[in-house]
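Give me structure tokens for this 109-residue protein.
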Amino acid sequence: MAKLLTEMLKGTLEGIVLASLSGRAAYGYEITARLREQGFSDIAEGTIYALLIRMEKRGLVDVEKVPSEKGPPRKVYSLNAQGREYLEEFWRTWSFLTERLEQLREGGK
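Here you go.
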């Protein structure tokens, strides 16, 4: 199951991270910790950081550098208007897919 779960997460991780940011802004490690608390224990921190960089380049999140008590400033990510639109589309698409999958599971009713 782990391999299948990993493959499925690849296609949904962006939406999952945006959903995590919809409640409040966070830095990379904090996002990873939140997701692990939600049961996504196999997500690597490096995967989240790479994803955040791609989302920043695509204009889905805003970034603010906040001083850190230890080391360099932290990049705090927050969902912006474009990211909220993308997240809404993600949830619409997710609903469509889950409805179709449930129909298939029930024998194509």
